[in-house]
């Protein structure tokens, strides 16, 4: 079957939606709720706040590294695809990067739905085999004396990276710090932004 033979994605989505509702698997309320969460609640800015809190509150960082699911829930970030979150701390000698080779899983409550490049077969296949060249192509040069650790998402486990806190941010508020933490920094394909 050629791709051109398929109905447009909107028509296929509508057909699946009405079939699920007809069979009583889902209700329109549930679908509307999920759409609301995806559009309004699942944002990487949540993870940015988690990272900024970890930078500025050592006790919170300890709890985050011990049980990220519970620590994120302290800030109100919980729910589907956030049932088992593990936080990975970057250090002076180790850089973490996350991937889902099988599909494209992210921790929705703190990173949001995955972006196109994260879902691309190329990223998923290559970052495991050759992380340094892939990171370099994405604009991140990891020094040779810093180890790169690639973490594979599983059906249950969702990761977030706690990037290194940029120098020159002493005394910054949590909100200021959070503004430096991009979605890419939470995935590990970029460092936190330098202070302006
Ligand atoms: Fe996945």
Helix and strand topology:
Blueprint: H1 9-22, H2 28-41, H3 44-56, H4 58-66, H5 68-74, E1 85-89, E2 94-99, H6 108-111, H7 116-119, H8 121-129, H9 131-137, E3 147-152, E4 158-162, H10 174-178, H11 183-187
Parallel strand pairs: 1-4, 2-3
Helix pairs in contact: 3-4, 4-5, 8-9
Bound molecules: fe (iii) ion (FE).
Short description:
The protein has helices at residues 9-22, 28-41, 44-56, 58-66, 68-74, 108-111, 116-119, 121-129, 131-137, 174-178, 183-187, and strands at residues 85-89, 94-99, 147-152, 158-162. With 196 residues, it is mostly helical.
Characterization of this structure:
- It contains eleven helices and four strands.
- With 196 residues, it is mainly α.
- Strands 1-4 form a two-stranded parallel sheet. It has a two-stranded parallel ribbon with strand order 2-3.
- The longest helix is centred in the N-terminal third of the chain and has 14 residues, at 9-22.
- The termini are far apart.
- Bound molecules: fe (iii) ion (FE).
């Amino acid at each position: 079957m050629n791709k051109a033979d398929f109905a447009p994605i909107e028509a296929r989505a509508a057909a699946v939606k009405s079939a699920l509702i007809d069979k009583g698997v889902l209700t329109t309320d549930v679908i509307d709720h999920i759409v609301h969460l995806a559009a309004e609640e699942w944002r990487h800015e949540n993870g940015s706040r988690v990272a900024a809190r970890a930078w500025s509150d050592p006790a919170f960082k300890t709890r985050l590294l011990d049980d990220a699911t519970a620590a994120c829930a302290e800030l109100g970030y919980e729910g589907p695809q956030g049932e088992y979150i593990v936080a990975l701390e970057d250090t002076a000698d180790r850089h973490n990067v996350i991937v889902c080779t099988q599909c494209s899983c992210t921790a929705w409550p703190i990173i949001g739905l995955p972006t196109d490049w994260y879902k691309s077969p190329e990223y998923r296949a290559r970052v495991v085999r050759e992380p340094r060249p892939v990171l370099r192509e994405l604009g991140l040069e990891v020094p040779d004396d810093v180890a790169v650790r690639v973490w594979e998402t599983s059906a249950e486990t969702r990761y977030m990276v706690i990037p290194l806190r940029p120098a020159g941010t002493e005394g910054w508020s949590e909100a200021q710090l959070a503004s430096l933490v991009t979605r890419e920094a939470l995935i590990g394909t970029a460092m936190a932004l330098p202070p302006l």
